[in-house]
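REQUEST FORM: STRUCTURE PREDICTION
Request ID: SP-0412
Submitted by: Lab K.M.
Chain count: 1
Length (residues): 311
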Amino acid sequence: MAVNYNTAPLLTVEGLKQYFKVSSSFTVKAVENVSFKIYPGETYGLVGESGSGKSTIGRSIIRLYDPTAGRLIFDGMDISKKLSKSSSLALRTQMQMIFQDPMASLNPRKKIGDIVGEGLDIHHMYKNSAEREAKIKAILEKVGLAPEHATRYPHQFSGGQRQRVGIARALIMNPKLIIADECISALDVSIQAQVVNLMKDIQQETGAAYLFIAHDLSMVKYISDRIGVLHLGHLLETGTTDEIFSNPIHPYTKSLLSAIPAPNPAVEKNRAALSYDYKTSGIDYNLGTERLVDGTHYVKCTDEELEAWTR
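STATUS: Completed
RESULT:
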């Protein structure tokens, strides 16, 4: 669906920091001063290598972690501090998460109908048991499962079917924002395509926004309207999908894109992946600030670095 960037953002992340104190003398700085916005109906892709802080950002936004610093504004509410009863209720119903491992995120002792309907039970979002059952069956059909699957257990499903259950559990609350945390990385390639197409179809129907966290750049290109590139907890570059893929500015972004395999064997044979090592690059992420390159395309760097990279 078309995204209107003239409207107010659904989610605004400003200067998010997430630190984890390991001992009295050592603290892991997982996320360092990250800022971005997600608009209603938009898919924002967050990419980066393992350990870059992608999942930590998602968990901080949905408040599974308490942010160390920064502001989180969701649908006009500040959710970065201690949540009030009303803001907590709004957050738990209007923002949902699809987790990476579909088996680990489903209770093996519960039937699928109870797993999917748990949010309805907690927030009393039905008048009687008949309405509850109708809602569960309808959402299962929407994600490509049969109504009779509601009486089965998670171990009776394949990986792709379990991920559909996770999507159904998130969708049944009719959220405004869904955080998809590496939700296709554990699936076969053919099943990945099915799940991503399902997510796109559901977005067309419901108008929900996605924070799509992944390291598969090809899939992120396919589903995302805008992309943010994350490395060592820093958001280095953000822009529309076309801007990032056709005109990458930061050396790290260029190295990521150069690693994408080409489907044409003749092209793949001559493809040369660019190497990038932060320690020897001479770049200091802590010195760089957000520079506007073109339109909505931002790069975190100094003026001198931007001039050198765009020369």
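NOTES: The longest helix spans residues 189-206.
Reviewed by: T.R.
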